[in-house]
Amino acid sequence: MNSPKTRAALVASTALLVVSGAAPSAAAAPAPAHGRTSVALAWYDTTADTIATAGSSLPPVTNSRTWAVSWIAAARALQHVPSGVDRRDYQDAALAGAVHRALVELVPTRAPELDAALQQTLDQIPDGPAETLGATAGERQALEVLHDREGDGLDAASVNAPFTVPPAAPGVWQPTPPAFAPAIQNGSRFARPFLLKSASQFRLPAPPAPTSERYQTDLKEVRDFGELNSTVRTARQTDTANFWFDSSLTLWTKPIRVALAATSHQPLLKQAELVALTNATLVDTQIATSDSKYTYPLWRPVTAIGTGVGEIPADPSWTPLHTTPAHPDYPSGHNTYAGATETVLTALAGRRTAPFTLTSATAPGVVRTYTAWHQLTLENMDARVWLGIHTRLADEAGVKLGTDVARYGLNHAQSLFQEH
User: Which of the ends of the chain has fewer CB neighbours closer than 10 A, N or C?
Assistant: First the structure.
């Protein structure tokens, strides 16, 4: 039996990731060697549980930051193993020490659960210098990353900085029914990205005019398929819409875990980099999304249909399947998230995966099975239209923006893992 180890007692090769067109297909993870639990999967689950429990009231980008900070620290801690110690023991302790310390600092209310998770990991590692040095290195990297990201503008108050609503005009965003709440996530565009040079680096072009053929076509689609009591939307389309109404952060947590499990044959460093880069890219994607949304504050379908525009007559009684979120239409945030995640997972785990199932809190009883990341992206694009809350042009623009940010992140990942 190992001697008890506590958090207090322990406080004492950069990889360039590029998009590859020949990435291997994801497959089921092999059983861990020597009966030891996969430390990457164990701490992935601990991170997910921590955020699900304590982060429900926070903006998605704030929670994505927690993921990114924790796993960047882990990846940095794994890069260099001192000579004379067991590599696996050192790296397992380093990953656990990094993620544990970052999460304790960012979510202190979960310290007891996090301490117990750390103890469980350390109990699997033989006592000795590899364990002690690894855990200490992990904690040090966590503190350094936290220090580097201090004041980055991704706290909840900064993210939800007030937005002055422009005067009402065709195509201009206005607060939406039923709450007519103030706009949210306006401040994300002023935050400091992890990898992007600026929030506007991949700013989208302006959306088409409300009277253009493209906009009119897309608005008619939302009007017909996204209405609360639509007679043309099928039962499966309704299920898809409800399914993807849930948080993108929540819905993509399992697919990312599936990709992580599929790379279990790779070095632990590569596994940590997958989680770190995915979430750092998602932070940057949400920053870029806010930039385009508030540069072009395009009205939501409920406003456009209620007001009437071009060949579409006003219908003040029109109601979407679900309540419209309080921020502009263009681009769809769910779809920027989808485009970014699909791009990173494709590069690092392959385009296809062993079949996995997914459920959603907003579609009880609905279970979906997927074998490729792109299937999730396609459903996201359709779902936002069938919900009545986004135009298809906003969905397609979102996927493009997320893809652009992710490709840049993949090609500049080296700087993310350099110790500062």
Answer: N
